Amino acid sequence: MDLSNLSHLLIGFQSLTLGQVVMLAVGGVLIYLAIVHDCEPLLLLPIGVGAILANIPATGMDAEEGLLRIFYDAGVRNELFPCLIFIGIGAMTDFGPLLQNPVVVLLGAAAQFGIFGTMLVCTLAGFPIREAATIGMIGSADGPTSIYVASALAPRLLGPVAVAAYSYMSLVPIIQPPVMRLLTTKEERRIRMPYVSKPVSRAVRILFPITVTLVTGLLAPKATPLIGMLMFGNLMRESGVVPRLSEAAQNEMANLVTIFLGVAVGSTMRAADFLQWQTLLIISMGLVAFTLDTAAGVLLGKLMCVLSGRRINPLIGASGISAFPMSARVVQKVGQEDDVSNFLLMHAMGSNTAGQLASVLAGGVVLAILAM
């Protein structure tokens, strides 16, 4: 038996470092969370697989012509995958609740405070401004936007930022309720909001994505790729004339791009880059960002409650983050804890969709200021 040939077969084991072993375990944990605990499985499962593949030595997959590098260069480094996913999100989203009650757009704007508050904290902690802004974008509660900004401002932080963003999005039902209960009284949580029965006309639904694209593009040009694709998907949905394209965007395209995006993001989680003290700090800052988002939305909701003569339930401010539709469901659940017949879901959905738009706009503002 030729022992030299055997050594070639075992080169992977011989080259394996302790850091790579740790990252293989991290990839396994992400897969475990996705399968067993249903934590954002659409992204965490392929991210976990990508992390495992990137940390198997001697595969050549992260080399210049390797499979993982091709995925990354083809869709993440040039920001293509997040934009394509936004077409699918737009095609899935009904902005009707927002159009019926436009005032909730203020709640969506307020709930982005976590982005800039966390950015300030990270700057004070010693992070360069571009990295601080990238970490702050975890507070957008919007995975594609976080990835889009990270790939432009701080590619080396892409892995931990993406993992933190999607992990905390799956933990919204745990993170938000304590903050909501702390900042509101029982009487405030029991406020019933009247429904707007007047339907939104088809013309308004069609003009909405066109108008949003134009206004956002002029105010924050850097946000145009994301907001433009989001609104393009919504226009396909609302026009009613291209059902095949709308369904393809929601299903086949969104699913395929999600796979490629997850694996590409996971491929950035190499041991040498990921296993640093800054990774733990980034993940911690993500929790701070989500908490600040929730608190800011609820506090503005309290102010609007007073100004409206107690016609607005402050709880819907919590759904101003972009974790759609999970955050809206959390608002409904917390509201019904004190009054089982109180239905806040549709109002919360309006605030939630406003948060989607506001998070993309915030990302565009950050890029406009820092991506020079």
Short description:
Helices cover 73% and strands 0% of the residues.
Order of helices and strands: HHHHHHHHHHHHHHHHHHHHH
How many helix segments?
Answer: 21
Q: Quick one: how many beta strands?
A: 0
Shape: globular
What is the structural class? mainly alpha
The description of the largest β-sheet is: none
Overall mean pLDDT: 90
Low-confidence stretches: none
Helix content: over 70%
Instruction: From the alpha carbons, calculate the radius of gyration and give it in angstroms.
Output: 22 Å
Strand content: under 5%
Q: Whole-Å distance between the termini?
A: 61 Å
Short descriptors:
73% helix; 372 residues
Task: Explain the overall architecture.
- Helix content is 73%, strand content 0%.
- It is built from 21 helices and no strands.
- The protein has helices at residues 3-9, 11-15, 18-36, 41-54, 67-75, 80-92, 96-100, 105-110, 113-124, 129-136, 143-153, 158-170, 172-183, 186-189, 202-219, 224-239, 243-266, 271-274, 277-307, 326-338, 345-370.
- Helix 5 crosses helix 17, helix 11 runs antiparallel to helix 12 and helix 16 (224-239) packs antiparallel against helix 17 (243-266).
- The N and C termini lie far apart (61 Å).
